[in-house]
């Protein structure tokens, strides 16, 4: 979906403003938002892809007016209600009946191991690669309503395969309960002039990691 | 908004506090686990990890070759592995090519090496313009590159996370790894900056 998250190449957002001596968190709630989001994710009711989709599905006016941790919290509330872990009424009232702990509630003692393990997305594939490094390809045009990792500014563009990373979980299905359906992932390089025409900065290139079904032969 | 009695608080402070309270009551999270997660990123996982990797690559050619070939394994050998660093690629700057990393679609970032991303990395301004006007964005960081240096921007669209290995600065010959690591800034490992030059 080319929602508010699909920012590559857009104008109007102004200059980048690095903050000198930026603190790790700008308010106490940001630290809690990080911890709550990761602890709730560890319950295993949704994938990272589904949580990304929940964030990018926020209305554009809210997305652009929210700090990043606010986007996380709004999306987390949506995920918790969607998966029947909280009711809208409980959220509105800010209180709930005490319950027996969830069987997969993240134990403080397990935090280091869980964070150190992460969630690798590489998967074995039995199919042969469709494309080889050095081959010219074109990205497909798509008007996909759901989650995808092909940014708009790279759709319908010519590029060159640089690397083959083997099979990886396919976010477009995994975000929507459609399973991992792993596909081959490639690094594809695009010349700046093929993306921005004569306005491209001379000699600039952009690469992205793209799944096989995003690509076609030229 | 929940919690009328909290209305003297920042609305997000109140909202997050209310959410943590209900999740705790319902047995979905343990606040001590939240503390442990925050503590991990506040004190253990940060850009000092990436700086140690870069300093070693600068001073150990064999390690640099391993890092270029299989960054995930090379970095894991130094004890840095985990969430948002499951699959890593190191990209090396040269006089001819400068590398820089962005995530236009969200905020993908190598947490195991750099910690949590700064606000500017997650901002629409950076995500929008880094792919279309990289040289102009680098100038906003005070980073001016020779016209002859090409800029390669890596958009992190999958679970592969990128570490930029900057060029070793002149005047750093003979420095110990710890002193080298002190030259490696976070921005130099994202590609929006360059390492410090020894005084």
TrEMBL record, chain A:
One of its GO terms (molecular function) is nitrile hydratase activity. Residues 120-216 form the Nitrile hydratase beta subunit domain. Residues 1-101 form the Nitrile hydratase beta subunit-like N-terminal domain. It catalyses: an aliphatic primary amide = an aliphatic nitrile + H2O. Its EC number is 4.2.1.84. It holds the Pfam family NHase_beta_C. NHase catalyzes the hydration of various nitrile compounds to the corresponding amides. Belongs to the nitrile hydratase subunit beta family. This is Nitrile hydratase subunit beta. It comes from Pararhodobacter marinus.
From TrEMBL, chain B:
One of its GO terms (molecular function) is transition metal ion binding. Gene3D superfamilies: Nitrile hydratase alpha /Thiocyanate hydrolase gamma. Keywords: Iron, Lyase, Metal-binding. Signal peptide: none annotated. Pfam families: NHase_alpha. Fe(3+) binds at residues 103, 106-108. Its EC number is 4.2.1.84. It catalyses: an aliphatic primary amide = an aliphatic nitrile + H2O. InterPro entries: CN_Hdrase_a/SCN_Hdrase_g_sf, CN_Hdrtase_a/SCN_Hdrlase_g, CN_Hdrtase_asu/SCN_Hdrlase_gsu, Nitrile_hydratase_asu. It comes from the Bacteria. Residues 12-192 form the Nitrile hydratase alpha/Thiocyanate hydrolase gamma domain. Coiled coil: none annotated. Belongs to the nitrile hydratase subunit alpha family. This is nitrile hydratase. It comes from Pararhodobacter marinus.
């Amino acid at each position: 979906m080319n929602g508010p998250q699909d920012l590559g190449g857009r104008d109007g957002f102004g200059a980048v403003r690095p903050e000198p001596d930026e603190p790790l968190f700008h308010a106490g709630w940001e630290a809690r938002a990080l911890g709550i989001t990761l602890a709730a994710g560890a319950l295993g009711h949704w994938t990272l892809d589904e949580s990304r989709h929940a964030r990018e599905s926020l209305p554009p006016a809210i997305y652009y007016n929210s700090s990043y941790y606010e986007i996380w919290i709004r999306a987390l509330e949506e995920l918790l209600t969607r998966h029947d872990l909280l009711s809208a009424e409980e959220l509105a009232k800010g209180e709930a009946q005490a319950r027996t702990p969830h069987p997969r509630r993240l134990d403080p003692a397990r935090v280091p191991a869980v964070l150190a393990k992460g969630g690798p997305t590489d998967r074995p594939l039995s199919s042969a690669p469709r494309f080889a490094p050095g081959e010219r390809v074109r990205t497909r045009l798509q008007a996909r309503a759901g989650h995808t990792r092909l940014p708009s500014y790279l759709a319908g563009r010519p590029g060159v395969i640089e690397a083959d990373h083997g099979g990886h979980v396919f976010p477009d299905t995994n975000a929507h309960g459609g399973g991992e359906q792993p596909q081959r992932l490639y690094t594809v390089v695009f010349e700046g002039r093929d993306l921005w025409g004569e306005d491209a900065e001379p000699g600039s290139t952009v690469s992205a990691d793209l799944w096989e079904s995003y690509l076609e032969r030229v | 908004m929940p919690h009328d009695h909290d209305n003297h608080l920042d609305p997000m402070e109140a909202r997050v506090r209310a959410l943590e309270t209900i999740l705790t009551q319902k047995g979905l999270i343990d606040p001590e686990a939240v503390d442990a997660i925050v503590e991990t990123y506040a004190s253990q996982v940060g850009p000092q990890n990436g700086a140690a990797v870069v300093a070693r690559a600068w001073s150990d050619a064999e390690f640099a070759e391993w890092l270029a070939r299989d960054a995930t394994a090379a970095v894991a050998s130094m004890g840095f592995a985990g969430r948002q660093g499951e699959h890593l690629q190191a990209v090396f700057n040269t006089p001819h090519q400068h590398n820089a990393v962005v995530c236009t679609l969200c905020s993908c970032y190598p947490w195991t090496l750099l910690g949590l991303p700064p606000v500017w990395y997650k901002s629409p301004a950076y995500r929008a313009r880094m792919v279309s006007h990289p040289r102009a964005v680098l100038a906003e960081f005070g980073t001016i590159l020779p016209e002859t240096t090409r800029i390669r921007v890596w958009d992190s669209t999958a679970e592969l996370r990128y570490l930029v290995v900057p060029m070793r600065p002149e005047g750093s010959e003979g420095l110990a790894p710890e002193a080298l690591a002190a030259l490696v800034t976070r921005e130099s490992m994202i590609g929006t900056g360059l390492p410090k030059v020894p005084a």
